[in-house]
Amino acid sequence: MQSDSIIDKIKKLEKHVLALEGTPTTRKMIQGKIQAYCENFIQNLKEGIAFNAIHEDACGFYDYPICENGYSLDEVLDLFDRSVDKPGLNAASGRHLAYVPGGGVPTAASGDYLAAITNKYAGVFFAGPGAVRIENQMIQFCANAIGYTGNYGGNLASGGSVANLIAIAAGRDAHKIKGANYHKTVIYGSKHMHHCVDKSIRITGLKECIYRDIPLDDKFRMDVGILSKQIKTDLSVGLAPFMVIASAGTTNCGVIDPVNEIANVCEKFKLWLHVDAAYGGLFCLLEEEKAKFKGIERADSIVVDPHKALFLPYGLGVALVKNVEHLLKSQFYEADYMQDAIENRNEISPAELSPELTKHFRGLRMWLPLQIHGVAPFKSAMREKLLLTKYYCDELRKINNIRIVNEPELSIFAYRYEDPSKSKKENNSINKRLVEEIHRDGKVFLSSTTIEGEVCLRIAILSFRTHLFEIDLAINEIKTKLEAMTINS
Ligand SMILES: Cc1ncc(COP(=O)(O)O)c(C=O)c1O
Asked: Is the per-residue pLDDT at 488 higher than 70?
């Protein structure tokens, strides 16, 4: 029997590979079903729960191992519905009021779709000049919002954690911090700094430096007087102060460190000022909020997260550096096989400012919504969240034994049930139980934190889908659960 020629073999394989492209009919069918699923999902958000504590269904995948010939789309979508969509937190829900929500505007998903189908190479200008320009335009948008002008630069990263890592590495390299000097180099931060910053310090090797946890003032902001004194003390014993890490919108309480005063200190002692504004920074888009962030534009590096205050789906944080040269030096690369791309440099490319080379064209998920809607509805959503926060706080004050732990500055704050006749430990248990009870039926999703040994609830109102209805629901949940707990205790 005559065996297949090489041409026959190639043609046979080619025919099989065509399945990956599909036909206009199969693509239409797949997109139609996915779109119908998404539409149904969006339409059910208002009435649906925010949290499903039952996790058993999340194991459905084990019955569908990856196989040679796949499954039907109906089966796969059903599996997704049961095993991914339903269990856990519904982060798209306006009832998600914990951690830092955003919601995920649908037009950003259309941007992702466009990016994936065209698969434009957004890492290097030579390959995707338009894609790179879009990414740079989004960086410019964020930089201008916080007040950077001149020779700034930045990178669209996957989120706040990676953006912080890029910025802190830039600070390390700008100050030429070498391993041999780590033992006398000092970094200053504070307790309410996000934990990803500590991770960045570790990943950049800076954990071997001396770290000073600067105490907070009575408003949970970094105490600048203590910071200044500590720097002087460190200098007097021959140490080398290097970086101050401030927060503009802390995760615990949503408060903004006194950035301008901190910038004065950094300027005086020639320290790198990094501001983690992942949560709060984009509120600078609101003219009337800018004063709260006074001095932020003096920072050497800043992080803002469009997947928080710009309501995009998860996957976009921005590292900004006041002087782009610092970022270019920190992320510098050379590679023979990239020579065509480097020689054709016309505009700075993301790959020159980030650890990534090939990357998702994530600028499009921000650009498309901004192009289609304009900035105005985003600003309205931010303003609405700030007012909802004030309203929630006012309503909480009407509930017996609820103490507002910090006055809201933006759209996150902490509060706590506190029965004066009970000990701190007993009140802590009540607050823990309150959160557990709220999670049990999942009507709204709130989270807890511990501040100075006190278990508190915190609310983060930042989903574009959170409106008065959802906030009234949250208030009602707190009242109902507290009443039930009092009855049952
Ligand atoms: C202030 C702050 N910084 C950094 C981060 C980390 O950002 P991401 O979760 O996007 O990595 C968060 C997340 O909530 C945050 O609130």
From this structure: no
d(CA 273, CA 188): 10
N- to C-terminal Cα distance for the chain?
Answer: 85
> 463 and 312 in contact (C-beta within 8 Å)?
no
Reported as a single tens digit per residue, the pLDDT across 51-77 is 998 877 888 888 999 999 999 999 999
Q: Is-contact 132 345, C-beta < 8 A?
A: no
Length of the chain: 489
Beta strands in 217-376 (DSSP E): 240-247, 272-276, 301-304, 317-321
Domain 376-488 top-level CATH class? alpha beta
How many angstroms separate the alpha carbon of residue 470 from the centre of ligand 1? 23
CB 108 within 8 A of CB 369: yes
Cβ of 411 closer than 6 Å to ligand 1, yes or no, is no
Q: Which atom of ligand 1 lies at the shortest distance from residue 100's CA?
A: 14
- For domain 111-373, say whether CATH 1.10.287.40 is its number: no
Residue 315 gets the label, from left (phi > 0), alpha (psi -120 to 50) or beta, of: left
Domain boundaries, the chain: 6-94, 111-373, 376-488
